[in-house]
Design a protein that fits this description.
Layout: H1 9-16, H2 19-46, H3 53-73, H4 77-101, E1 112-114, E2 117-119, H5 121-142, H6 148-165, H7 169-185, H8 190-210, H9 212-222, H10 230-242, H11 266-274, H12 276-298, H13 303-327, H14 345-361, E3 364-365, H15 367-372, E4 381-382
Antiparallel strand pairs: 1-2, 3-4
């Protein structure tokens, strides 16, 4: 037992962190281990690797990810802002380097190899960008004379431009949705709502007209007979085969032929082997994490903590929703990981950084600390 009278960094963290949110994240991470073991061996065998190659690497990335998650959750709001600035600057530099010297895979440049590790810098840029945008919106509310909103728009244009150059339209749409959500929470005017919606629609239409890759996916979604829909069709068959309670661990059929069964379509593999019950449980777990974080953020008096925690929760939830919607053929196919479930080192560590900041921003902090970060009117509450 940890006494409340102990004044150590760990004891203060333990009595202020949201334990229910932390427990839900741990359960999600453990669920990812089980589903990785179920989905990855056939993929590794098919490409000539050891059957447990991807599973072993998934487990290997768990330790640094968990360390990042816990370490970041100790940070104060000021330290979170500073870390986000550093992470965002490094990520932008890596994205530029990827565009210049990164290998081209399937028409895109998204990965760069550093010290033997494949890094997708756009993953780490996302949570850092959300925090910086939230800080700028909070500054705009506190100090109207500061051109913080314009600075947030410049940051958005810079990141989106780099993502389009890769190209990675899925991450671009995710960034736009989350940025718009944080801007809405910050109280944007209706003219901004209409303008952003028009720009997003125009950008999507332009991508449909001038980018064959995007046009092909949209056409296949609207008319499956117009192209190859093998992966999404196989995923839908997996849901049908699994029924409510699944075929049993290791008994799945779809994973034997799905090229991305351990990444983009791990949700379908889980449905086939463990049933729709598992899918509903995962959906409930993601929903709980998002709603819990939003409810804690709503209780914040500090605007930065409120906006940043809300934005990170929306980023986490929308990414999960996109992956599950693709698996269920509700939206055009898009390669996006299911948080902490899909295989991917860059994704897992970046997600750990993001949810670590969520835990830090929703910790219960005393009035004295709130005043020290610049909100002298804050009552004892979450921040």
């Amino acid at each position: 037992m940890i006494s409340r009278e102990q004044r150590t960094p760990f004891s203060e963290w333990w009595w202020t962190v949201d334990k229910l949110l932390l427990a839900a994240l741990v359960v999600l991470i453990l669920g990812g281990v089980i589903l990785s073991l179920a989905a990855s061996p056939p993929v590794a065998t098919r490409i000539g690797l050891d059957p447990f190659h991807f599973f072993n690497r998934h487990v290997m990335f768990l330790l640094p990810s968990f360390i990042v998650l816990i370490a970041v959750s100790f940070l104060s709001p000021r330290q979170i802002r500073r870390s986000a600035l550093i992470v965002f600057a490094v990520s932008i530099a890596l994205i530029v380097a990827t565009l210049l010297i990164g290998p081209e895979v399937k028409g895109s440049r998204r990965w760069i190899t550093i010290l033997g590790l494949n890094i997708q810098a756009s993953e780490s840029a996302k949570p850092a960008f959300v925090v910086l945008a939230a800080w700028l919106f909070s500054e705009s509310a506190r100090r109207p004379e500061m051109p913080a909103t314009s600075m947030a728009v410049v940051l958005l244009i810079m990141l989106v431009s780099l993502l389009v150059m890769e190209p990675d339209f899925g991450q671009t749409m995710l960034i736009l949705m989350v940025w718009g959500s944080v801007f809405f929470i910050a109280g944007m005017r209706i003219v901004w709502v209409m303008g952003l919606a028009g720009l997003a629609s125009g950008g999507l239409f332009a991508a449909y007209l001038f980018v064959p890759h995007v046009a092909g996916r949209i056409k296949r979604f609207m008319n499956p007979a117009s192209g190859d829909t093998f992966q999404v069709d196989t995923a839908m068959e997996a849901f049908s085969n699994g029924g409510w309670f699944g075929l049993g661990p290791g008994e799945g059929i779809a994973k034997r032929s799905l090229p991305d069964s351990h990444t983009d379509f791990v949700f379908a593999v889980g449905a086939e082997e463990f049933g729709i019950i598992l899918c509903l449980a995962l959906l409930a777990l993601f929903a709980f994490i998002v709603i819990r974080t939003l409810s804690r953020a709503y209780s914040c008096e500090d605007l930065f903590s409120r906006f940043a925690a809300s934005g990170l929760a929306i980023l986490f939830g929308v990414q999960a929703a996109i992956n599950m919607a693709v698996n269920l053929q509700l939206i055009p196919a898009k390669g996006m990981t299911l948080p902490f479930i899909s295989y991917g080192g860059s994704s897992m560590i970046s997600l750990a950084y993001g949810v670590g900041m969520m835990l830090a921003l929703t910790r219960l902090r005393p009035r004295v600390e709130m005043e020290s970060i610049g909100d002298a009117t804050a009552a004892p509450t979450y921040a």
